[in-house]
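ugh ok fine here u go
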Amino acid sequence: LTVVTSEVTDYAPIGVPIFHFGIKCAPKNGYENLKAEMEAYVGMLVLSNASSPLYQSMMEEGLINNTFTSEIFNGDGYFCIIFDGESEDPHAVCDRICETIENAKKTGIDKELFNEVRKSAYGGMIQEMNYVSAAANIMMNSHMSEVSPFDAIKVLSEMTIEDVNRFIREEIDVTLSTLSVIKNPAVVQQNGGEEE
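structure:
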């Protein structure tokens, strides 16, 4: 879980700075990994999707645009929650994300949003089964992860808000994080070579 570096900056000819903010979590295996992945996925959507207070407030303040998303990146020996998008002030976005997670640890996530996200994710998984290529991917990924192709649907159907609140409270430590930013070198030079 050691963080190698807390911030990485790179440069490319882009219009708006691009950021990825990753938070490390303890890796797991098999069914426990799948369960943690689904709890993290639902929890982060509740906290940061387009209907969440975090997303709405940052949009209103111009901190983010509609590229802002979250994802779970996990596998054998690694587990990471990632937020990414475009922002003129990535540090402010990270502060708001961390603040939202810390508040959720104390008060829990919104029950109505939880139910909406869980049902939407469940419906999306059922719909995916209608497509041969998607079903094949699910079967392959499940085999590699040592779970059943239908375990993800089972986890979602049985998931409670208490499960997600426990994951956020016990598994997420915002200090185990790294911010990666890509900036336009021309903009940095215009600012006298100083990074904001």
